[in-house]
């Protein structure tokens, strides 16, 4: 097994992640995008393999794919730099469905950091439930857009099965979602493993939320075959808002105006992104959370072809 962790200024988290993983899983590869903090020195002091790339050379899909293909490991595991394993044996738990032949990809449960407010914590509670799941393409009617849900903040893949679909494609974001979609179309399954837990959450401003959802809307528009399979995300969005407001009513009703504003911002970001294929690049750069992407070769060569 190989664990791949892309990093950029990961100093606040990296040593803790290494401490949780290294004793049981020494084969870790860090792909660093020219960090200007102590990320590289932390990796070297722990004898972790590290590859340095240019910051603008990073791409969510292409970078993960490049270093996945460089290994002969049967299973490749991805963490993000700020996803802290709760227990040292997380890898055994995460990869169990793959080893037992039940799935081609598995992902763990993300729980909010200590002190997270409701807007940071609720997405984790909504998307990561208590019960394990095995999902296939036959579950589209049941799960809708959630059928292909996965997060490379904590996920494991069978390398050979990724090879069958051509691996991760260059993309602005959501490389995990689209890879899972192709795997399930190819007859494979995904496992959600709630007892493989990482601490991972973010507090986003409204501006951040707009940019994130712009990027998501854009890549969904690039790949309309996903929408054709699972339908649009509005039904799930309404369910999310309904459950969020219930939680707010139970905790602090004064937060309701912000919840409404946040929901509107997310909706507008997604809609602008979904309709931005013909926007000039300077507008995309303003609205996107990844300005460098629009001048990169990955933008010009991103794979949008349908696997159907």
List the helices and strands and how they pair.
Elements: E1 2-7, H1 11-21, E2 28-32, H2 39-45, E3 49-52, H3 62-68, E4 75-79, E5 84-85, H4 90-99, E6 105-111, H5 118-127, E7 133-135, H6 140-143, E8 154-158, H7 159-164, H8 175-185, E9 190-199, H9 206-222, H10 224-230, H11 234-251, H12 256-274, H13 281-287, H14 297-301
Parallel strand pairs: 1-2, 1-4, 2-3, 6-9
Antiparallel strand pairs: 4-8, 5-9, 6-8, 7-9
Helix pairs in contact: 5-11, 9-12, 11-12
How would you describe what is shown here?
With 308 residues, this protein is an alpha/beta fold. It folds into two domains: 2-199, Spore Coat Polysaccharide Biosynthesis Protein SpsA, Chain A; 206-299, no CATH class. The chain has 14 helices and nine strands. The chain has helices at 11-21, 39-45, 62-68, 90-99, 118-127, 140-143, 159-164, 175-185, 206-222, 224-230, 234-251, 256-274, 281-287, 297-301; strands spanning 2-7, 28-32, 49-52, 75-79, 84-85, 105-111, 133-135, 154-158, 190-199. Strands 1, 2, 3, 4, 5, 6, 7, 8 and 9 form a nine-stranded mixed β-sheet that branches. Helix 2 (39-45) links the parallel strand 2 (28-32) and strand 3 (49-52). Helix 5 (118-127) packs across helix 11 (234-251), helix 9 (206-222) runs parallel beside helix 12 (256-274) and helix 11 packs antiparallel against helix 12. The chain is globular, with a radius of gyration of 19 Å. The model has no long low-confidence stretch (mean pLDDT 94).
